[in-house]
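for the writeup, i need someone to sanity check this before i put it in the appendix. the sequnce is what the collaborator sent (i think, or maybe the updated version? ugh). structure was predicted straight from it, no edits. if anything looks off just tell me and ill rerun, i have time this weekend
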Amino acid sequence: MKLKNIIIVLALATAFTSCEEQLDLAPLSAVGDNGFYTSADEVEGAVIAIYDGLQTLPLREFALTEMRSDNAKSKSREGDWAQFEANTVAPTNQAVGQYWAANYNVIFRANVVLENLDSVSVDADRKQFEGEAKFARALAHFNLVRAFGDVPIIDQVIIQTDEDYFDRDAAASVLAFIDADLASAASLLPESNEFGRATSGAANGLLGKVRLTAGDHAGAASVLAPLVNGSTYSLMSDYSDVFYQEGNNEILFAIPYVNDDVNESQDFSYEMTAFGVRAGLNYLTDDFKNSMSPDDTLRAPVIVSSNNANETGKYLTTSADVRRCGNDWIVLRHADVLLMYAEALMGTSTQTADANAIAAYNAVRKRAGQSEVTGGDALTKEALADERRFELAFENHRLYDLIRFGNATSVLAAHAAATGNAFEPTDLLLPIPQAEINISAGKLTQNPGY
């Protein structure tokens, strides 16, 4: 759906679906916004609509991230999907257009909440709703700026005549806006919440990643340190339990789904783990399989499916309908935080002997049964990047890790050459969807190389 259409349609009638997992929510009828948001319950309904919107984000995000890295490829190398691994993504690519629209949909819903907080009389509720809306708005803007570079900042509900909002804002300005939203959200949100709803820990964890992306290593370390040293989150003892004991203590934020539910299920699990029958997206590359240590025996059975060595085992479904899967999507977990903390303490150096950085790195390595940095040795940036690649494999981090570590061009150019594809530095950003450029009457400009 085009950005303008999202604004018009959702402003006139917003339909909310129920969520049957731990967010036990009753559906709300479509109501014109001029007769809505007069009570705290109605505003909370709008908050829940944000989470409903978030459920659309992971559906094909893997294609825009993992399949553009050296981790994943498609089975058939056909159609729009082949464009991601071949670095030939077109401005008309449907998955790209849908991702743009889905993220701005979430932003719209968040702004609706923020503009109706006066209807909430209980201070604690008002703070929580504001924090949840700012967290979601920040997450969606972060998805967009990393994928597309300069993008419009939408900080209020807009209509089709608000043309000033159609211009692209510089990526640095977008990151600063996200930083402010997350800092505010962290101060407003509770430490604990229903699973699937934002918390102060989730806001600070995401803020750490935003600051690393912006090159603010000291700022990232300051917000990540309490998460590393606190007791709210911890590594699961068994790597498999991270994905198959949902709602566990390692997760800072996840997007929940429900098996066999027409509204609350997802099909990315099917696309990744269809036992090689019909689907075939996010297949493991030879480079990934060959790079994984043969000693990584604790993680390997989860990362690589026992049903098909070309597929990941992180999202094997137990649903009766293979296209209505209930595997949750983990946005942020403690292992990611530990490795980000090590990265923040390393800063711009190529290695570090910092004891806290090494301890954070070693915690992840120990859980995986891998060798640790000991005896006064330094932790290198290369080792940290490799650990992130395998610990967080097929969780949509690899491409952005390469970009953040500064070696995306060299790694992806070499991978492209080895697989018979071409690569240019401009391929690190996706094209602005052509439909959005058309709607904006040219105020949105295309990225270089497209």
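The beta strands are 14-16, 28-31, 72-73, 251-255, 283-284, 329-333, 351-352, 379-380. The CA atoms of residues 100 and 239 lie 32 Å apart.
thx in advance!!
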